[in-house]
Amino acid sequence: MKLFLRDQWAFAVFFLVQLILLLLIIALDGYWNESLMIYAVFLSVFFAGAFMVVRYLTHRSIYQRLSNPVQSLEELTQTHGNAAICRALDETFLEHYRLYKEQLHAYENKQRDYTTFIQQWVHQMKTPISVIHLLLQNEDDPTAESVREEVDRIKRGLETVLYIARLDRFEQDFLVEPVTLHSLAQNVLAENKRLFIRNQVYPELKVDGQWRVESDDKWLSFVLTQMLTNAVRYSAGKSNKVTIRAYELGPNVALEVQDYGIGIPLEDIRRVFQPYFTGENGRKYPESTGMGLYLVKEICGRLHHGVELESEVGVGTTVRVIMSAVLPTLQDRKKAES
Amino acid sequence: MSTIMIVEDDPKINQLLQSQLEKYGYHTVNVEHFDRVMDVFTEVHPDLVLLDVNLPKFDGFYWCRQMRQESNCPILFISARDSKMDQVMALENGADDYITKPFDYDVVMAKIRSQLRRAYGLYAPQEGERTVEVAGLKLFLERMELSIHENKVELSKKEALLLEALMNQYPRVVSRERLLEKLWDEQFVDENTLNVYITRVRGKLKDMGLEGAVETVRGSGYRLKAVWEDGQ
């Protein structure tokens, strides 16, 4: 309404000026009939008013549309009425919408192609790594050991790339089912045994065999691997133990990895979950990518798990994932206790 | 002797798998023309198939379906693809197990043995029985037994693993890291536990009259020494 009035006031003023001009011409010509004049004014104003009202009614949708901000792209495709200007406007909007969509699709395709490419490339790289891995398996001299170490690093790097690429299509690639924490932790530890041995850090597993949670086995393994890699990296040379434990936390189960390493400075703690953030420790340990904890947070968010981090410089760091327990777990436990 | 067919388009992996399998007494057949996988399959009637997913022309899932129409033999997928969907697809198409690259020989061998056992009940000790021998000292890995001449001694699993590593590398030194890695399967093993196992192995060797057969090399690891040869 406001926009309509603002749009039309010039016309109204013009109309009134013209009316007065007309009356003046007639009056100055010496023809002065008061009642006729009033009648003429009334008639013109009435018809002009009626015209304005009709105009407002037929074009109302346009004025409303123009004065309210667009909420979604789809609003652009709605039609607004039959008046010529409405149809023209609709057509323009549709054209804009089409162009915009086209560009968006082009980018979407590009992005998808890129993700597919990355995934394929990672898989291609896995073949040479497999070959190196197999060739080295029966070797036991220091050079072979050193190459094995590097192969492990490449493997971990590729794994991370793959998981980041997959994150975009997370919805198609996860399956929530009961996961037994003990065997999950055991598998992750076995997969990363060389990392532990090389850094002379040993895991302490305090996970009850019966704890089961609602989660995705593969993604949760990746999360735990990231947590352990961090814990081992920041323990090396300072402490030789990393503790993995699971316990009841209200209606949930917490799975935590605690290290007794260098810890994270207070001013960095807030930001450790941001991508590419490496902080002070990152400068000391050139292998930090700043992606580990970001991915942990991201993946846990999508699995509907909570993440917490506590740390003190010189004392160590604890990263905790909080998951909802599979009900029988808690009930069995209560039963066993009573 | 079991025949194992390998369908893998990377020549190096193919060749490495082949030599590893042959070392353990399996007969292997590989595929050279990937449009004629089924011809080879019907011709040799393998007891087990190792199948890659990414292959030229048709993928592994396709060949798996084809094979299933003719035979019930165990089919193991070997693939770099490790998404849940791929594993589900493989099982849906009739595979028995799925191994992701890069893999360890140990894992592949263990899975092959278990599939063969399940399918044909091959418990016969000769079938793929792994033995390691160093100058008359014989280690039977399936039975976990160590023998020299008429002398025999039973071993625990970890002890057998330790000896296997030492004997395989004979006469070279095996690093502590390598031994820790070998011992660490389900339960992790720390330095102290390794010391305990080394002591036990030494004890058992001593029972057989082989004192000093496991030599400590300062700063690097352990080495097997054929002390029994000097005496004779």
Characterization of the model:
With 338 residues, chain A is of the alpha+beta class. Chain A has 11 helices and 7 strands. In chain A, helix 1 (2-28) packs antiparallel against helix 2 and helix 5 packs across helix 7 (217-233). Chain A starts with a helix and ends with a helix. Chain B is of the alpha/beta class and 232 residues long. Helices cover 42% and strands 22% of the residues of chain B. Chain B contains 9 helices and 12 strands. Chain B has helices spanning 11-23, 37-44, 60-68, 84-92, 105-120, 157-169, 176-183, 191-207, 227-230; strands spanning 3-7, 27-30, 48-52, 75-79, 97-100, 131-134, 137-140, 145-148, 151-154, 173-175, 214-217, 221-224. In chain B, the strands form 3 sheets. In chain B, strands 2-1-3-4-5 form a 5-stranded parallel sheet, sandwiched between helices. A 4-stranded antiparallel sheet of chain B has the order 6-7-8-9, with helices on one face. Chain B has a 3-stranded antiparallel sheet with strand order 10-12-11. In chain B, helix 6 packs antiparallel against helix 7 (176-183). The model of chain B has no long low-confidence stretch (mean pLDDT 85). Chain A: It comes from Brevibacillus choshinensis. Chain A: It catalyses: ATP + protein L-histidine = ADP + protein N-phospho-L-histidine. Chain A: It is found in: Cell membrane. Chain A: Its EC number is 2.7.13.3. Chain A: It holds the Pfam family HATPase_c.
List keywords for this structure.
heterodimer, A: 338 residues, alpha+beta, five-stranded mixed beta sheet, two-stranded antiparallel sheet, 11 helices, 7 strands, B: 232 residues, alpha/beta, five-stranded parallel beta sheet, 9 helices, elongated
